[in-house]
Design goal:
This protein has 350 residues and is of the alpha/beta class. The protein has one domain (6-341): Glycosidases (TIM Barrel). Helix content is 37%, strand content 15%. It is built from eleven helices and ten strands. It has an eight-stranded parallel beta sheet with strand order 4-3-2-1-8-7-6-5. The protein has a two-stranded antiparallel sheet with strand order 9-10. β7, α10 and β8 form a beta-alpha-beta unit. α9 crosses α10 and α10 packs parallel to α11 (332-341). It is globular.
Length: 350
């Protein structure tokens, strides 16, 4: 995630407001140059998009990425995924894809076919970030749903991909049910449970809705990992460009050298022009501020979503035969801004 349905956005804004108070205190305590702030190898190499289930990746059954089918064999899944991954590269210049996992998928019969997505991306030179998503309904509470299935899931995934240097592991998406300290404990337990995984192939989510990385950055037990941040324009009804820059920076603190924004997004199918400064438009202010800041700070970014059926934020849309899918870009100016954030293209702000 995180494109929250309109009915839930007020709640999300209220949570974000409360979190902001805590962020200010935490970020002030993070010391530049401390061991916890050491970068693995930098993050500008991550230039990517999320590929999502139409249900926002929250599911109590098999995950079915947009354009795929749970009835497909490994070979058919691999073939379809190969085309979609190739389209991400051709249309956007991406080299990274973030994919969801859950115990139903990994511990079930579909895992054999779902691996076709991961393998297709890796075989085409893409970096692959695998992130655990909780379930839906009552399970959608920011906690690991069931540790008796969670840890076996990760054992299966790690065993399958620990030797593939292109595959990265993110223990949980948006762990907002936990306090900052509780989440850091779980992340530390994950690292201790899988010591064979190099730390620079682990993404530790920011606390809350992945909305600040300052607390996990300051924890010495998590040294050497990447940190993942989420940032969304709908968290505010309106903010100026400068206000969005400030909002983003306080969530990062001095940890930009370890941080990848592995979710950020705005409407892409409504005709907005992100190439032109438009001070009265919150979404344009947000996208321009984020991509400018990512570029300035040398941060990698993974847009939400690259592909998700019926999502107005989706920057790609399925086209062609379902057996041989391809993608088209829904907003070229949005693609321009992604490229700018990734270190390419020309600036649009004076």
């Amino acid at each position: 995630m995180r494109k929250t349905p309109a009915s839930n956005r007020l709640t999300s804004r209220l949570r974000a407001t409360c979190v902001a108070v805590a962020i200010a205190a935490v970020s002030g305590a993070t010391l530049a140059g401390s061991p916890a702030s050491a970068a693995p190898t930098g993050t500008t190499q991550f230039k990517g998009v999320n590929w999502a289930d139409p249900r926002d990746n929250y599911a109590d059954d098999y995950l079915q990425l947009s354009g795929l089918s749970t009835s497909d064999s490994y070979a058919r899944t691999y073939a379809k995924a190969s085309r979609i991954i190739s389209a991400f590269r051709a249309n956007l210049g991406a080299n990274t894809v973030r994919l969801p996992i859950n115990p139903y998928t990994v511990n079930g019969a579909y895992w054999k076919s779902y691996r076709g997505v991961i393998d297709a991306a890796s075989d085409r030179g893409f970096k692959v970030i695998l992130s655990y998503w909780e379930g839906t309904g009552a399970q959608k509470d920011g906690f690991i749903d069931d540790e008796s299935t969670y840890w076996p899931m990760w054992k299966t995934v790690v065993t399958a991909y620990k030797h593939d240097p292109k595959v990265y592991f993110e223990p949980m998406n948006e762990p907002h049910g936990y306090t900052d300290a509780q989440w850091a404990d779980i992340a530390a337990k994950w690292l201790a449970t899988y010591p064979s995984v190099p730390r620079d192939r682990v993404f530790v989510s920011g606390a809350g809705y992945n909305d600040h990385v300052t607390s996990v950055c300051a924890d010495p037990r998590l040294k050497g990992t990447y940190l993942s941040l989420h940032h969304y324009g709908f968290w505010k009804d309106y903010a100026t460009y400068d206000q969005w820059v400030a909002d983003l920076k306080v969530r990062i603190g001095d940890c930009a050298s370890r941080t990848v924004a592995d979710e950020f997004g705005a409407p892409m199918t409504t005709g907005l022009n992100y190439d032109v400064p438009t001070p009265d438009n919150n979404s344009i202010n947000f996208i321009q501020a984020d991509t400018d800041t990512f570029r300035k700070l040398g941060m990698g970014s993974v847009y939400w979503p690259g592909l998700r059926t019926d999502d107005t934020y989706s920057i790609q849309k399925l086209t062609g035969d379902t057996a041989r899918p391809w993608l088209t870009t829904t907003n070229q100016s949005g693609a321009d801004r992604l490229a700018w954030g990734w270190g390419r293209g020309r600036p649009v702000r004076p």
